[in-house]
């Protein structure tokens, strides 16, 4: 990946709907080589897809909750089973296997406290193998980036 590829990625992260013609003009490359580079970046999985960023509060999910999960076992089978379970929970926006005393860190969205409580009781706490959980509610996002610093 060279400097031109990095410029393509930077521009696309700002506006993934940009046409190849506009992208080529913005980065100073003709359309055909730009299209080839973009196709290669997509084929290599560097450009993993395109989507719209949706404001979670405006769709009725203003609450973000970070949940630390400690599992009974840290075996591969236990972690895989937990991962399979939470992949089916649409409220789980992120789920990370972590180092340290807690095993998992998740970010969950909810409409309100009652909605979050329902998620805990009906979904998360029914997953086998959880030893304990700790939840923290985000008051506000101080930094929230969508653009990776690839330049």
Low-pLDDT runs of 5+ residues are: none
CATH topology of the largest domain: Alpha-Beta Plaits
State the secondary-structure class.
Answer: alpha+beta
Distance between the termini: 11 Å
Q: Beta fraction of the residues?
A: 15-25%
- What is the rounded Rg? 20 Å
CATH architectural designation of the largest domain: 2-Layer Sandwich
The topology string of helices and strands comes to HHHEHEEHE
Number of domains: 2
Main-sheet strand order equals 2-3-1-4
Number of helices: 5
Q: At the fourth CATH level, what is the homologous superfamily of the largest domain?
A: Lrp/AsnC effector binding domain/regulation of amino acid metabolism (RAM) domain
The averaged pLDDT comes out at 96
The geometry reads as elongated
CATH hierarchy, class of the largest domain: Alpha Beta
Largest sheet: 4 strands, antiparallel
Number of strands: 4
